[in-house]
Amino acid sequence: MKAGKTWSAVVYAGLLCALLSGCLYEAAETQAETPTDSGGEGGGETPAPEPAELPELASCNGPCSCDEMVRPANDTGVTFSGVFPSGNLASCADTANPQDCDFGRDRKAALGELSKTGSGAAGFDFVKVSANGDLLDKDATSWQCVLDVTTGLMWEVKAPDDAQGLRASNQTYSWSDNGQPDYTSVNLGECQQESCDTQHVIGRTNSAGLCGFNDWRLPTKTELQDLVYYANKQPSIDTDLFPNIKSDIYWTSTLDTDDVGSVWSVNFNFGTVAGGSSRDPHHVLLVRNASVPEQPAAEITEPELDISLRNRLAPLQRCSDVGVVSSPNSRFKRDDAGNVFDSWTGLIWRRCVEGLSGDLCDEGEVALLDWQQAIVLAVDASEAEGLTGENRWRLPSIKELQQTVETHCEEPPLNPFAFPNVPLDQVWSSTPHTGLDGHSYQYQYQNGILFYAARQQRRQLHLVRQCQQGVGL
User: Fold this and answer.
1) 243: cis peptide before it, omega within 30°?
2) Closest among 22, 93, 56 to 301, alpha carbons compared
3) Please, are residues 122 and 100 in contact by the beta-carbon 8 Å criterion?
4) Core-most of 148, 231, 245, 326, by most CB within 10 Å?
5) What's the mean per-residue pLDDT of the chain?
6) How far, in Å, CA of 163 to CA of 161, rounded?
7) CA dist 434 → 89, 249, 369, 397, 461 (Å)
8) Is residue 39 very low, low, confident or very high in pLDDT (cuts 50, 70, 90)?
9) 465 phi and psi, to 5 degrees?
10) Once rounded to an integer, what is the mean pLDDT over residues 35-53?
11) What pTM does this model have?
12) What residues contact 371, with CB distance under 8 A and at least 6 apart?
């Protein structure tokens, strides 16, 4: 990367922060040319300092162990194929062009190969929970919480609009947290309590001991999006288990660190994800850890936090100290082919988006493809490497695209030491839209917004495949 390019990118980031009030990010300090020293003994020049080495990912030293996955997640719930340029099939029938429905828990459920503890649409597996915390039979007609067997999270279940108390589904809250004063907006929602903000509703819910527990909280944006049932619409959730959810916006606990006062939310209209002002009145769906697998320690080295090193691989990236580092180097490894193995999710990613190559993904030109072209390219990539079944290269689902997110950085919200020089553009998912049947979901590698686009649009492609347990790569 040329020094001039880095310098101009940094200046641009600094100006952007200055123009956008409330930007918490600090651009990397510009480095002027090292002055020469013609004085002193011998009149020689002072040599320029050697550039610091970039942090590198650990190597798998052969096949990566796929038994390390510690963050199980739900599938999207999509069991049908999308057709190009428009239309959706009633089932997963277009086997020549594998997409979302051809992989994962939903496929197994559709084939009758998925054993469930409870009930739920497609690959979801939920158990109803009583007011005192007892697990109920799937035929129970009254329940206040739901245990997600796959993720180990327990969710509150909203009551009808005319219910009295905290659980009435039509109540809204502004976002507040005493630990984040720059993001806090107090009592700007509409509710039955004296203070309508998230901090107060969480406190009151814990005091009331919903379902016998007092450790309820807001979900992260990854956790809440993981609950979205993308085969359903308005609301995009399993309404048999969550009967009173609104087709509307719900708060998460994840700060949108690109803007002061902005917090991420999930819209259960169609399952989109975006940031918004903490002053806005939105709904809440609280969650708690029931039997969540222990998360690995986020081992973060000082060089990983050095913005000047990050900017050598992501010239416009800005990071904030108010967020939580969610994608440290310690969760990733590289295999012998240079692919990136995410040990937290069990996914193997191409290091570069399609069209780019080289160890730092700084060679070539990014390929912009319509949805059908992207699916065909994945098929060709798998055939070229002799990969079949679940181990094939494919488009990631819309949930998988968010699972690697770096929540405390933007442009891109990714770890640049794992995924260097990512173009800040939209990337296709394999998930077709159920309501707009000429559209499929996309993810933005600029700041992590999740939306959808017409399938004729041209987007970049980041291939992924599933690591199979017990057999390495």
Assistant:
1) no
2) 56
3) no
4) 148
5) 88
6) 6
7) 10, 19, 21, 14, 21
8) very low
9) -150, 165
10) 58
11) 0.89
12) 82, 84, 428, 440, 455, 456, 457, 459
Q: Which amino acid is it at 240?
A: D
pLDDT at 38 over 70: no
At 437, list the tokens: 């049947």
The distance from CA 269 to its chain's CA centroid, rounded to whole angstroms, is 18
| Tokens 């700041």, residue located | 447
Residue type, 147: L
Amino acid type, 351? R
Q: Burial letters for 444-458: b for 16+ Cβ neighbours within 10 Å, e otherwise?
A: bbbbbbbbbbebebe
> What's the angle, vertex CA 33, arms to CA 30 and CA 34, rounded to 5?
115
User: What is the DSSP annotation of 390-433?
Assistant: GGS-BPPPHHHHHHT--TTEESSSS-TTTSTT--SSEEEEEEE-
Phi and psi at 3, nearest 5°, equal -60, -40
Pairwise CA distance, residues 37 & 121, whole Å = 72
Instruction: Name the pLDDT band for 279 (thresholds 50, 70, 90).
Output: very high
Using one digit for the tens of pLDDT, what is the confidence trace for 218-257? 999 999 999 999 999 999 999 999 999 999 999 999 999 8
Note the pLDDT of residue 60: 87
